[in-house]
Specification:
The chain has 65 residues and is mostly helical. The protein is built from two helices and no strands. α1 packs across α2.
Length: 65
């Protein structure tokens, strides 16, 4: 049985990150469902994660200005 060892530094931020994930997925044309999304290809999942990181970096850079 697989276990998730990722610990969230700010557990309250989970709902915002989840909303952000669905937002990015719709922007890149990947259809996410509520719940299990194991039918996504690695390419699709990577596209979502990569774009999330890109947007978070852009936001952090803008806040530093």
């Amino acid at each position: 049985m697989a276990t998730n060892s990722n610990k969230k530094l700010v557990p309250e931020a989970m709902s915002a990150l989840d909303k952000f994930k669905y937002e990015v997925a719709s922007e890149v044309g990947v259809n996410l469902k509520d719940g299990y999304n194991g039918d996504l290809t690695s390419k699709e999942a990577g596209r979502i994660g990569g774009n999330m990181v890109r947007k978070m970096i852009q936001q952090a850079e803008q806040q530093m200005k």
